[in-house]
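Hi D.,

Good news: the full-assembly prediction came through. Inputs first.
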Amino acid sequence: MGRKLLAIFRFLTHRSKDERDLDRELRYHVDRQTELNVQRGMDTQEAHRQAVLSVGGIEPLKEECRDARAGRTVEALLQDIRYGVRVLLKNPGFSAAAVLTLALGIGANTAIFSVVYGVLLRPLPYRDGAQLVVLHQQLKQAQIDDMPFSVKEINDYCDRNHTLTGIVEHHTMNFLLIGKDTAERVETAVVSANFFDVLGVKPILGRTFVMADDRKDAPAVLILSYKYWQTHQSGDPNIIGKVFQMNNRPHTVLGVLPPIPQYPSESDVYMPTSQCPSRSSPAFIQDRNSRMMTAFARLKPGTPLDKAQADLSVAASQMVAANPDVYPSKYGYQMAVAPLQNELTQKGRTAFLVLLAGAGFVLLIACANVANLLLARVLKLEREFAVRAALGASRGRLVRQLLTESVMLSLVGGVLGLALAPAALAVLVKFAARLTTRAAEVHIDLPVLLFTMLMSLATGVLFGLLPAFSMGQWVSEAFKQAGGRITTSRSRHRMRSLLVVAQVAVSFVLLIGAGLMVRSFSKLQQVSPGFQPDHLVTLRFSPGFPPYTQETLPPLLDTVLRKVKAVGGVQSVAITSGFPLNPSGIVNGPNANEFQIEGHPVPVDSPKPQTTLRFVTPEYFDTIREPVVKGRAFSDHDDAKALPVAIVNQSLARHRWPDEDPIGKRVKFERDPRWLQIVGVVGDVKDYGLDRPFADAVFQPVKQAGFSNRLVVRTSLDPSAVSPLLRATFHEIDPHIAVDQVETMERLEYDSMASPRVMTILLGIFAGLALVISASGIAAVMALSVTQRSHELGIRMALGAERSKIVGMVVKQGLSLAFVGTLIGMAGAALLARTLSTMLYDTKPTDVLTFLAVSLVFLSVAAVACFIPARQVTAIDPLSALRQE
Amino acid sequence: MAKPKSDLLQGTLDLLILKTLELEPMHGWGISQRIQQISEDVLQVNQGSLYPALHRLEDQGWVSASWKASENNRQAKYYQLTALGRRQLVSEKENWLRLSTAVARIVGA
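Then the structure:
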């Protein structure tokens, strides 16, 4: 192989020297033979003639010698390329159109493939990522798919399984990290000491936890995530050993993680379980019902997933048998094991695959178009091809030349597409980041480049082969009619029509997809959130415990409310434990607090009612404009000394008291001995995203419930102008209160719709591209057909056909193609649109209105595309057509 | 690819060339003369097919070529066997012997 390549290389680089050598070598032979012939008595001229004849002519012999060399095919290829470049440059319009169409198609595919590869296909950047699994506790009857674990449960599974090498736990907490002169809220992951060992993550600085770090009396330590180290510690290379105050203890930095996706959530710092105040309390550890952790595990090498699933199901049933009071059979408790890779990417899978399919469709349509353009060009060149065929060019050689041209086009398109891809990718990565923590891994790297190259080659071959095949049939035909007019064969026309129909059908499917998304998105935008999102600012403030205590916190909240209210441009302000469209709420969905209703006892072994529970100050409902529909809002009198009260939303009232007035009824939450009397009913609010149904909610006054640290502020001015004033106010109250997540509610609302918006925009772009490409395809085919039929049409006109009728005839012909394509596309769309159903809001995949609207748009565009070339008919001169006859 | 216009059996020309070059390096014309002489003019090597064969052998690395002054003091392209070519010659000789004995047996029977 190496020899051969070397020979080809030599052949290509030494060509002129080789030619000279060949010439000298053969001349030497002829001269010697001539001498010999002269010696034998011929005269000089005859001797030379005989010598040349004896080798069969110098030039043919040279050609044979060249053919004997390796690299001859390469030379032929170079010839084809030179010829192709000349041809393509001579038809700049055709070439530019083809390259541009292909570049768009290939660019889109490259960008989307990088996401699909980086997120769905590439192995996890953990050691043997395929062995990593997530454990889910499920209560089938209560429709809970992912109940958190308690310490006892994790220990049980550790002891009872035979298929896992280690189970590790993970939960997140929000702590205040206090440096020399900074106080920051940090998202803290609390993990088992062997968490990083089980995942197989090596730190880039320092070390990860060891078992000794998890002992009760061990000094407190932290590991920083790469991102936090970079953004908040400016990548300080001497960070190891640095000490921060946290939870009133000094914490020493042990290590820094590499830039890897974090699961289940992005955290700033990691600590071992013994350091988390709630996780390490003996009461928490003892209580089998105190659940807050996620559990991961690594399969023993060679263990298939279903074996681990069976093993853990046995462990689960043993655990249930040992604790029948905790897992009543009516709950339908079970254990499910899922590969970590799926968990990381589940949410984005459909969206990415739909986009990849969309981009693939666009490329197919583009291919069909270029094939059609190429076919049209081949038709114009048929006489040239016929002559070349007559002069001895083999059919294979002609096909090869066409393929060379098409592959050149597609490769140039590919390079251009690669140049376009990074811009598209930047948008896509942002989009992907909402769906998976793996988005950070998306790059245009070697596999992606390889994919793009193969895709370019494949498209080139695909749209080059179609015209090449149709050419084969007529070369022989061309011989018969050499010099005469070559009539268009039926089959070639049929192929062009087929291409157009296919294009139309595929474009139609894309348009339906985009149409459905647009319809769903516009419905989503019309959803009333149940409150007024404009002129609202939200933020999180985090006073540390200490210096604050249960006694000093309530006065602090009063101060905050008073001072913020005094800020210019602030209309009203409230403190709450949460607010609608909060990003973490959108990610995690409603939290489930179990409660009892007085007079409605629930049997021990059946699920208790659940609701979101939120603590708010009296002005909350007025501030966000959530209407009080019955009873009253909270007042300042609802304090710790007063009767415990609650407000419910309409959704909960409807579910729990369908035929009664909820006012005056009493409810009680777990771990709170008090019965709360319902004093009001408020309207429903889209707390967890505009596309979600309303969730049940119960509100309690902050003063009767507990500390809350979110601020919602209604402003009379532009809310973004007020934000800096709010920060300044907190700094004035206490510089050690960390303030973050300052956002306007409009921004949050906009962000909450980011995924459907990006999907809609991307599919819209694809559909738009498809529409333009296939419209131009129709126009090009009709134009060619008119040109080729100008003779026939001229005679029709000469015989008295009206021009308008002929235009109509041509348009009708084109439209019938579009119509057939649309029908096929409709069938395809009806089948394919179902994959979109999880992404559609209040829109059926077979939405009649969308199908009608898209058909109408499509057919009108097709009509215009037919009409423009049909107007060329008016330029036909009937007389010249007659004269030709 | 064009096939050598040889009356000789396919592959036999290669064997003849390699065998001729076994003694000493030689230019194309010399090879054709030598083959004719040794075969006592029985084998008229088609000179038109000699050169493509030489180029093919060179490409395969069985012979190498260099320019040297020839017996009449002109520069000529001399071919010589490479180590690879020597090995090839051995195996082609064996092949030929096997083939020719087989043919001889059939013809003589």
